[in-house]
Sequence to fold (101 residues):
Amino acid sequence: MLCVTPQRFLTIAAWFKSNGTGVEGIVNKYYNNSYKGYQIFLNDGNLCAWYFKDASNYIWDGSACGLQVTGYNDNRWHHVVFVVDASGGSLYVDGVLKANR
Fold:
């Protein structure tokens, strides 16, 4: 039996807790106008993530929140994992796949 693990370009994991509104950063690495980087953040309680390898390869839909999951300003701890691989991007919250593109 042959088992092949897909190549991962990026995996980011973090714990967060929020009861706020507005934009709150969790993890970010991006240089302005570079089209290279990634971000996980909250926007009015919505958990958001996006990724740019370059101007042609990205996980983003043109909105402020490329991958979005609602309802996380509940003042409870949550574990988020953002995975980018050859098939696209996936956002897991508390061990459950919540969004992918």
